[in-house]
Amino acid sequence: MDYFPIFLDLRTRHCTVIGGGEVASRRISLLIDAGADVTVFAPTVNSTIQRAVSDGKVRHVAEEFIPEQLEASTLVIAATDDPSVNRQVSEAARLRGIPVNVVDQPDLCTFIMPSIVDRSPVIIAVSTGGASPVLARQIRARLEALIPAGYGRLANLVNRFRNTVKQRFEQPAQRRRFWEEVLQGRIAELVYTGQDNAAIAELQKKIESDDHNSPPLGEIYLVGGGPGDPDLLTFRALHLIQQADVVVYDRLVSAAVLDLVRRDAVRIYAGKERDHHVLPQEDINQLLVRLAKEGKRVVRLKGGDPFIFGRGGEEIDTLAAEGIPFQVVPGITAASGCAAYAGIPLTHRDYSQSVVFVTGHLKDGTVNLNWKALVQPNQTIVFYMGLLGLATICRELIHHGMSPSTKAALVQQGTLPNQRVLIGNLETLPAIVEAAEVRAPTLIIVGEVVQLHQRLSWFDPVSPGTASGREG
Fold this sequence. Notes:
This protein has helices at 22-33, 47-54, 83-95, 133-146, 151-168, 172-184, 186-192, 196-209, 235-241, 255-258, 281-293, 312-321, 334-341, 371-374, 390-399, 429-436, 453-456; strands spanning 14-18, 37-41, 58-61, 75-78, 100-102, 115-119, 122-126, 219-224, 246-249, 266-269, 272-273, 276-277, 297-302, 326-329, 354-359, 379-384, 407-412, 420-425, 442-446, 470-471. It is an alpha/beta fold.
């Protein structure tokens, strides 16, 4: 271990910064956040530091560096663009026994500044010992994605009730088990979603009644898995997927997203295809109720967004009737994700001032839509689940007044490495799709914005030298 990790209490302590540029301003910001009493010595300072001075957060002394400026300092940071001045600051601080950091010069430092994940009062510091600050920032970015923003509030909640729990449970093992259940269960989830008062009430109830015998009531997390690319998951979706006891997933959830489920979680496939449902919707509803009553944390994982043609409303309606706690985590819907990856903006000031999402087949299997409402000028129409009814869709739009030359696109496996985009118009697209042997999942986009695909397409998952993923 090259460095001894330590956290300093700098509240109201005098800290000195030498330098007035951008690098110095970033260090000053951290010191302000830590509650330090900061003085900046530099002939001039940038606008960021000047605002902090005007707001009374720091003091600025417009002087060149002299060693006497470090007197009575608890900590010193050198951040000038003059290596000789930085070395003088380091030597002067060392002579006085003051911890010193010289930005980007670890050989002149007695301490180094780590990359920080701030969930105050939870602070996570990452350091490579000065070997690679970029690598430290990349590690921090990964941690940021895994650690909910509510961790700090959760820590404050735990601290508030520590003594109460200590009095309630005399044995350390009992307290440890109690807090493990709190930090991994519904109370923590309430904090993460900003329901702090409900979390406090639940925690008080648990302290008063907890006997560790009856299984707790579980919770259902209705999570949008996005259009396929796992990098498009929200932080919250990723967090819940990785802590779930059971994951009930649909056909449209990509394999790459499922790979993020923890290895010991139970996976239950509840996919639906046209005229073939592995589990009828009512059975899925009752499955979720049963799992929750067994105390399980269940992620109901759906492709896209659960509230856009995902039957999410039907499922949580049953949960609400049964008194089962649930949360809804939105996802990037297929329309947004596939259109973006196909280079087709759904709205554009020159071509479309509105967008409509439509399901391509109804509950009774028909394609009986309000065609008149769909055939409007300057409007983009996005059809979900419309592959089998594509010929009917195109025919009816033309029949109700839309020009046969209206641009139309079909996006297959949008956002994934095998994405295909087929371009045509209402008259030609059905034949293009039939010749290309397209399979679900697909999305159909109709409107003049489709003509922007050729100019704005940026995502080409096919390697050079192979057939293009864009056709038509």
